[in-house]
Specification:
Number of helices: 2
Number of strands: 11
Largest sheet: 6 strands, mixed
Radius of gyration: 17 Å
Shape: globular
């Protein structure tokens, strides 16, 4: 009895789905170190408007960025659902403020549609693809583009 080994590998990527404004965005779970409740942010003078300041997380000073402002949306509204997602990039931590964290989804790479680079508006400049989860669409964030100054 011979078994045929499938050469097509269905790569699955897990994303944490967050809400920013009315939109759903996915952040690749490999970048996420922690998700914390909103806390007191210490302002830092002479930084761009999207940098809200710094927080102290277990003795480590972490800069916090507003994704809303970075994407050209309205100022953040802090609610009980507001979270700070701590990303670890090259051993450096940075926090991203989001309106809420919804769930973790697993998307097959085959289900992700790449976004074309033509006529992209500001907030779409940070999206690398669109994932389909049931009936809803999730804009998948390009973390490197978000963190570039």
């Amino acid at each position: 009895m011979a078994y045929e080994i499938s050469t097509q590998v269905n790569e699955i990527i897990q994303y944490v789905v967050v809400r920013i404004g009315e939109e759903q965005y996915g952040i690749d779970i490999k970048y996420i170190d922690n998700i914390v409740r909103m806390q007191n942010i210490t302002r830092v003078p002479k930084v761009p408007a999207h940098l809200k300041g710094v927080i102290n997380l277990r003795g480590e000073v972490i800069p916090v960025m507003s994704l809303r402002i970075k994407m050209g949306m309205d100022e953040d509204e802090i609610t009980k659902d507001t979270r700070i997602i701590i990303l670890k990039i090259n051993h450096d931590g940075i926090g991203l403020m989001v309106d809420s964290v919804k769930e973790v989804v697993s998307l097959n790479v085959a289900e992700i549609e790449k976004v074309s680079f033509e006529n992209r508006e500001e907030r779409n400049a940070f999206v690398q693809g669109i994932g389909k989860q049931g009936d809803s669409l999730i804009s998948l964030l390009d973390i490197n583009a978000v963190l570039q100054e």
